[in-house]
Design a protein that fits this description.
This protein is of the alpha/beta class and about 280 residues long. The protein has 2 domains: about 1-200, Spore Coat Polysaccharide Biosynthesis Protein SpsA, Chain A (Alpha-Beta Complex), CATH 3.90.550; about 215-270, no CATH class. It contains 8 helices and 9 strands. The protein has helices at about 15-25, 50-55, 70-75, 95-105, 175-185, 215-225, 230-245, 250-270; strands spanning about 10-15, 35-40, 60-65, 85, 90-95, 115-120, 130, 150, 190-200. Strands 1, 2, 3, 4, 5, 6, 7, 8 and 9 form a 9-stranded mixed sheet that branches. Strand 2 (about 35-40), helix 2 (about 50-55) and strand 3 form a beta-alpha-beta unit.
């Protein structure tokens, strides 16, 4: 059956020597049509683990650029498969999930971008059925990069914004949501499918108990970009939710959200290639 499915590249972004060792533990046994394309940032000239070097289905590219979004974009740039799936270096993949993902793209030729389920964070955020994604996401829905797959033919049309994400100057987050939102804004057919493809055992920016000032500013920028007209109401609500959850003092949180929101016009102006 696998030979009939579209090929799949997992675009893995990792950093530091310990990151490449996590990749070695993460990958599944070889499978026809699946390749791991790894962008290795801050590699410190460390050697590739022997178990990775021996795998013909693993391609590793050392990357000297800065920022998580640039690292993801570098991985995608080296992908050659029909389907590309964003990946971190600590994902637990389900063999049947990856096969199901490929089958969905085969059976839905009009779909450009598809999002799926991971066992990560609040599981109630996922819709219960297939949904066409528009600029107004389903209520409560949020997305992580490792839940997003897309066709290789459009990889130059959708990029991660380099001013968002860990390692950027001030806005440490929001790159996953903006990747999907930008694809929708560009008129691509984006859909959610209720298929479990992986598990992410660790916290992310959206699920960890504490957040940094840069995380909160990224929240503010994301709100301003996705809800430009209602953001004056949404920013105080977000500040209140951060305070209620014990993640930030109320006034400080609101101030940081406003700072991030004020950065949004400049971020959009400078990044039309990766946004819209």
């Amino acid at each position: 059956m696998n030979g009939e499915l579209p090929s799949l590249d997992l675009a893995v972004a990792t950093h530091r020597p310990e990151g490449i060792r996590r990749v070695a533990k993460m990958i599944l046994p070889p499978a026809d049509g699946i390749t791991y394309v790894v962008s290795w940032q801050d590699h410190q000239d460390a050697p590739v683990p022997p178990e990775l070097a021996a795998r013909l289905d693993v391609k590793i590219f050392r990357f000297d650029g800065v920022g998580q979004s640039n690292n993801r974009n570098n991985a995608v740039a080296h992908c050659r498969a029909e389907i590309i799936l964003h990946s971190d270096d600590d994902i637990i993949y389900l063999k049947e999930g990856l096969e199901g993902l490929r089958l969905i793209f085969k059976e839905n030729p009009s779909v450009d971008v598809a999002t799926f389920i991971s066992r990560h964070g609040d599981m109630t955020r996922f819709p219960q059925r297939e949904v066409k994604l528009t600029e107004r996401f389903p209520k409560g829905y949020s997305v992580a990069c490792f839940e997003i797959a897309f066709r290789g033919r459009i990889k130059e049309r959708i990029l991660c914004c380099p001013e968002l994400g860990l390692g950027s100057r001030k806005l440490h987050g929001g790159e996953d949501e903006m990747f999907l939102y930008s694809a929708i804004k560009r008129g691509l057919d984006c859909r959610f499918f209720p298929l479990m493809i992986c598990e992410h055992p660790h916290d992310s920016t959206g699920t960890k108990g504490t957040v940094t000032a840069e995380n909160i500013m990224a929240f503010g920028c994301l709100i301003a970009l996705t809800y430009p007209w209602s953001s004056p109401l949404r920013l105080p609500l977000k500040a209140w939710r951060l305070w209620r959850s014990g993640r930030s003092p109320l006034v400080k949180g609101l101030w940081l959200l406003l700072r991030g929101a004020l950065m949004a016009p400049g971020v959009l102006r400078r990044n039309h290639d990766s946004l819209w």
